[in-house]
Design goal:
OB fold (Dihydrolipoamide Acetyltransferase, E2P); alpha+beta; 20 strands; 682 residues; 54% helix; five-stranded mixed beta sheet
Length: 682
């Protein structure tokens, strides 16, 4: 056992991460992995016995430990995958559920942020067609039919069709289906509120208890006339629920670089940990036992907060991480904080391995690690004389350290960077602890019905002031850099450069200078390579656009659009932003759609609602059907003899089904963008 403890826990966690990545992206059978794991454990035991002898190297033992934990990570992915459970709904019903509506019994697990058209929930299945099943689904209820918010734990029965979650139909758009699949949600049901039959078999769980607590808090706050915007911020900051935040406010916080303030995660739990440590500091007077009691109470209160906040993945992650950090603070060792981070990560990944692919998980751990590693070096650069200066300087260095640690990852995921992020954080973060403490006091006083109106009004004004500051920062558009193309290669090189710069800053020597030089050289070569690749890329794309036929021509990193009607700003953002960022290109012109195009060796005919195709001498290789032309497709094929037919999203579905059948009979490739997505000519 002592040999195992000599191996850094960081290496074990890194080995586990490699195993989870390998297990997620490959389809290795569980039985085969278990056989390999057994073999490595036998090898581990033999090497452990062998290294007990004097003068024997432990390298073989270390290698076997690493391999053992890699296989352990693969096994975790397999074990946690619900489809490996025989009672999972996908194994019992095969494809039957996709054909006809079925009777579904379920209970509400979690409410999600609604869209413009739907209220959305995660539901846990109880039975389908009177068969007991397991698994989670996405429930969508049209907003026009919703009468009340569904409560966590409530059970319902409905009669509905289970369908696949739609994939993005245009390139480089957000893949919501892929995002949900990492939470083991693979299908959805869409039903009217009136078709939900409430049953008495509600599930009593910790999630339901938390939902009742939050509902009761909101009822107690209602008489104090908080505005809807104020209530949504209170729910986000104190109760971990940001589903009702106005989209404009959400956009303001995002553009100001302060979106982390709205999600209960590491920042809030860290501030809460500091507040609790200050409140319970007198317990330190009772010596060692007092410190143990204080740490125990702090951890219990953190988990009570996690329960009230709904035990969402971000809250669980933050509270688990800071519970170990609280223990590390009790030990009073910098190394123990690193160990606390690593151990909490290890435990979370064992319980939920796919958390590794959560953006929030990655951002939380990177931010805390960056603060612990980088901030102490920055704070030494200046020694303030006054308390306020000290607080501002420490806040500034914490913000810079966190942003430096997160910079490559945020550019990779979000492709934008607010240059004034430090202003919003410098102003808000120092007072966020006061707002959180004030908010907790307001909630407690409201619960016991002794909250003075003046206190409630003051708290509401604090929230308004915070919103105003964030709004002002977000509107400084000249300081918001958007549409940043940042590849996975740039992500890796970016972190190599940052790490080498920090090492150089901490200890200036030839090795660190060489590392920085190599990193900058790699960065320069990669920028030249990617720029060359993008400048040489040329393609014609038929986008999926239901209301406006849209063709795009990419050349020399410039995208020209040909469309029936002009492209609106919203359509441009929805259709083109992801594509432009991926290709590091810009949208140049929007021209009127023509009927005939020539691209490389292909002649392309666009058949619109007029349906004119009998042009003398025209022999198109490709026909694009738009706006539901009233044509006899079989006759068109016999006359023009095209090699490919494409139908975009502007056509009626009944037409598309008939054309698809005709092309199948005539053995002509048929591509419909409503099913297969945009079509790209390379």
């Amino acid at each position: 056992m002592h040999r195992l403890l000599n191996i850094p826990f960081l290496i074990l966690t890194f080995s586990l991460i490699i195993g989870i990545v390998f297990g997620y992206y490959t389809s290795v059978s569980l039985r085969l992995v278990l056989i390999y794991e057994t073999i490595t454990i036998v090898g581990l035991s033999i090497s452990w016995w062998y290294t007990k002898k004097p003068f024997r190297s432990s390298h073989v033992f270390s290698v076997f430990v690493i391999i053992t934990f890699i296989f352990f990570g693969i096994i975790l992915v397999q074990i946690h995958h619900p489809k490996n459970n025989p009672s999972h709904y996908t194994n019992l019903l095969a494809n039957e559920y996709q054909e006809t509506p079925v009777t579904i019994s379920f209970y509400i697990k979690e409410r999600l942020k609604p869209t413009s058209y739907y209220e959305k929930y995660v539901i846990t299945l109880q039975s389908i067609k009177n068969k007991n099943v397991t698994g989670n689904l996405l429930l969508q209820i049209p907003k026009k039919d919703i009468q009340t918010t569904l409560i966590t734990g409530q059970s319902y029965v409905t009669y509905s069709k289970i369908s696949s979650i739609s994939k993005p139909l245009n390139p480089n758009q957000f893949d919501y289906a892929h995002y949900l699949s990492k939470q083991y949600i693979f299908h959805k049901i869409t039903t009217d509120f009136k078709q939900l039959i409430h049953t008495k078999n509600s599930i009593l769980s910790i999630y339901r208890i938390a939902a009742f607590i939050r509902t009761d808090i909101n009822k107690k706050l209602a008489p104090y006339h908080f505005s809807q915007k104020q209530l949504s911020i209170i729910n986000a900051l104190l109760l971990g629920q940001r589903q009702d935040i106005d989209n404009k406010i959400f956009a303001d916080y995002r553009d100001a670089g302060a979106i982390h303030i709205l999600a209960v995660s590491g920042l809030h739990v860290g501030i809460l940990l500091i507040i609790l440590n200050l409140i319970l500091k007198p317990l330190n007077w009772f010596g060692k036992n007092g410190k143990i009691i204080k740490t125990t109470i702090v951890i219990l209160l953190l988990w009570c907060f996690a329960i009230i906040a709904g035990l969402s993945p971000s809250v669980l992650r933050a509270v688990t991480m800071f519970s170990f950090i609280a223990i590390g603070m009790h030990i009073r060792s910098k190394t123990s904080i690193y160990n606390a981070l690593t151990i909490s990560m290890f435990i979370l990944l064992c319980l939920r391995p796919l958390l590794l692919f959560s953006v929030g998980f990655q951002l939380s751990y990177l931010a805390v690690f960056a603060i612990v590693w980088i901030q102490p070096s920055f704070v030494k650069l200046y020694r303030p004389r006054f308390y306020i200066d000290k607080v501002l300087w420490e806040t500034f260095t914490v913000t810079i350290a966190a942003q430096l640690g997160l910079l490559p990852l945020t550019l990779f995921y979000f492709h934008q960077f607010p240059l004034l992020f430090f202003i919003a954080n410098l102003i808000i973060i120092p007072v966020l602890g006061i707002i959180l403490g004030f908010g907790i006091l307001v909630v407690i006083l409201a619960e016991v019905r002794i909250l003075p109106n003046s206190v409630a009004s003051t708290f509401g004004s604090c929230i308004n002031a915070m919103n105003y500051i964030v709004h002002w920062v977000s509107k400084q558009e000249s300081f918001l850099v958007t549409h940043i193309s940042f590849s996975w290669r740039m992500l890796i090189i970016g972190y190599i450069l940052i790490i080498s710069l920090i090492f150089t800053f901490k200890k200036f020597n030839p090795t660190s200078i060489l590392a920085v030089t190599v990193s900058i050289t790699l960065l320069s070569f990669n920028l030249m390579y990617e720029n060359q690749q993008n400048s040489e890329k040329e393609e014609l794309i038929i986008f999926h656009n239901q209301r406006n036929t849209t063709l795009g021509f990419l050349q020399n990193q410039c995208l020209s659009i040909y469309s029936k009607d002009s492209i609106s700003k919203n359509s441009e953002k929805f259709l083109l932003n992801g594509y432009l960022i991926e290709n590091n290109s810009r949208f140049t012109t929007n021209k009127k759609l023509n009927n005939v195009y020539r691209y490389k060796d292909k002649t392309i005919l666009v058949l619109d609602s007029i349906g004119i195709y009998n042009v003398k001498g025209l022999r198109p290789n490709v026909i694009i059907l738009t706006n539901s032309p009233k044509i006899h497709l079989k006759r068109v094929i016999e006359t023009l003899q095209p090699r490919q037919i494409i139908a975009d999203g502007s056509n009626y579905r009944s037409y598309l089904d008939q054309w698809e059948l005709t092309c199948k009979q005539k053995k002509i490739p048929f591509h419909r963008t409503d099913k297969k997505g945009a079509y790209i000519f390379k």
